[in-house]
Specification:
- With 224 residues, the protein is an alpha/beta fold.
- It is 34% helix and 21% strand.
- It has a single domain, classed as Rossmann fold.
- It is built from 6 helices and 7 strands; from the N terminus they run H-H-E-E-E-E-H-E-H-E-H-H-E.
- It has a 7-stranded mixed beta sheet with strand order 3-2-1-4-5-7-6, with helices on both faces.
- Helix 5 runs antiparallel to helix 6.
């Protein structure tokens, strides 16, 4: 009970909840030997059924790796694996932190098998984070153009989140960093109430993800 209350009263519950659901909906498309680029603590590993799940990250990032589950560190230039090694590659909320995006895609194509799949998520609306390594945001048109320009075939694409959830999450995020115990409790209570309200609205209000203009992230599944 306490763990559930703690989860639902988190100021970042809504973006995390929406993103996890979106990734879960695509997870069956990824199998075999899988590389998670920018893996951090591997928060989505449990969603994938694969032969091997390898986490890749760089030491030079905007966060420490005290809770990370990195299998291989790399220099941000060359992915340390042979050509056409992976059946699937994941890049969740990492492209905005890549300064040379063209080189990154070149490396992804190199280590991805022919007809291998890449599952990408990238933010449209979220505050700057992991500074100073936060370089870009993409619209649905921008991310699809970027992937097609780098010779990937788009299989599926969707928008993650709704206007209601974005407004609520940004509002709650403005209270982040409170250290006073009373303030922290009040923020938790406010988060719990607002998160519950948005979930209720989302349950009864059905809208097309394609027509949505205000949302957290893009999620795109592509094939080499």
């Amino acid at each position: 009970m306490f763990r559930a209350l703690k989860k639902y009263s988190n100021i970042t519950f809504l973006p995390n909840y929406e993103l996890r659901n979106a990734i879960a909906a695509c997870s069956s498309e990824i199998s075999g030997i899988v590389l998670d680029i920018g893996c951090g603590a591997k928060p989505y590993e449990d969603l994938f059924k694969c032969d091997a799940y390898i986490g890749l990250d760089t030491k030079n990032s905007g966060h420490n790796h005290s809770s990370s589950k990195v299998d291989v560190y790399y220099d941000g230039d060359k992915i340390p694996f042979p050509d056409e090694y992976f059946d699937g590659i994941l890049a969740f909320q990492v492209l905005e932190h890549v300064e040379d995006i063209e080189s990154m895609f070149s490396e992804i194509r190199r280590v991805l098998k022919k007809s291998g799949k890449l599952l990408v998520t990238a933010p449209l609306i979220w505050p700057e984070h992991e500074v100073p390594y936060d370089f870009c945001r993409w619209t649905s048109f921008g991310i699809s153009n970027l992937l097609e320009k780098n010779f990937f075939e788009i299989m599926q694409q969707a928008k993650v989140g709704s206007t209601h959830s974005v407004i609520a999450a940004l509002f709650l995020n403005s209270f982040g960093g409170k250290t006073n115990p009373i303030s922290k409790i009040l923020v938790r209570l406010l988060s719990l109430a607002l998160n519950a309200l948005v979930l209720a609205i989302s349950h009864f209000a059905v809208s097309s993800s394609k027509s949505r203009e205000t949302y957290f992230d893009n999620i795109v599944l592509v094939r080499k």
